[in-house]
Write a structure and sequence with these properties.
InterPro entries: NadR/Ttd14_AAA_dom, P-loop_NTPase. This is ATPase. Pfam families: AAA_28 (PF13521). It is built from 7 helices and 5 strands. The chain is an alpha/beta fold. The chain has a single domain, classed as P-loop containing nucleotide triphosphate hydrolases (Rossmann fold, 3-Layer(aba) Sandwich). The chain has a 5-stranded parallel beta sheet with strand order 2-3-1-4-5, with helices on both faces. Helix 6 links the parallel strand 4 and strand 5. Helix 2 crosses helix 3, helix 3 packs antiparallel against helix 4 and helix 4 crosses helix 6.
Length: about 180
């Protein structure tokens, strides 16, 4: 069974908070490639920032997500990814039309269930790493919600509930797969 689980969806929808809760419960988590890249770029020359060069940013995210996947794929237990390879490849493909998504997603399969955080305007905030507006976040969510099923994933929309309950929801849905 594939124990690499994607948590994707709308920016500002509570993905990182959910992953932190899953980490507190003893599960391995992998932080979002995009946020790690932005932090690195802000400390350096800033050439691969999404608001400077989105294609370079997406390519770096693909490289980082591929490495994250390779590192986690051989470990026992659940590993939860805050976004991942498919999100990065979908962004690049949307941006420049380069057909990378199907090839990359076939070579790097995550668990068949993907959990999406829906748009949640009440908790959405911008910060130094998230400068885009809510409308852009919703457009990205809509693209991802359409893409995942075409790649053979079952999309599960996370309810807008407190983080501990969200974590219980995810773990409960995954435990149903084991039985």
């Amino acid at each position: 069974m594939n124990r690499s689980v994607l948590i994707s969806g709308c920016s500002g929808g509570g993905k990182s908070t959910l992953l932190a809760e899953l980490g507190r419960r003893g599960h391995r988590i992998v932080d979002e490639p995009g946020r790690r890249i932005v932090k690195q770029e802000l400390e350096g020359d800033g050439a691969a920032l999404p608001w400077v060069d989105m294609a370079a940013f997406a390519r770096r995210a693909i490289e980082m997500a591929t490495a994250d996947y390779a590192t986690a794929s051989w470990k026992a237990g659940w590993t939860f990814f805050d976004r991942g390879l498919i999100d990065a490849a979908a962004a690049l493909q949307h941006l420049i039309g380069e057909p990378v998504l199907e090839k990359l997603s076939a070579a790097h399969r995550y668990n068949s269930r993907v959990f999406l955080t829906p748009p949640w305007p009440e908790i959405y905030v911008t910060d130094p790493e998230r400068r885009h507006g809510f409308d852009e976040a919703v457009a990205e969510y809509d693209r991802l919600a359409a893409i995942y099923p075409t790649l053979g994933y079952e999309v599960i929309i996370l309810p807008k509930i407190p983080v501990a309950d969200r974590a219980d929801f995810v773990l409960d849905r995954l435990s149903q797969e084991v039985n």
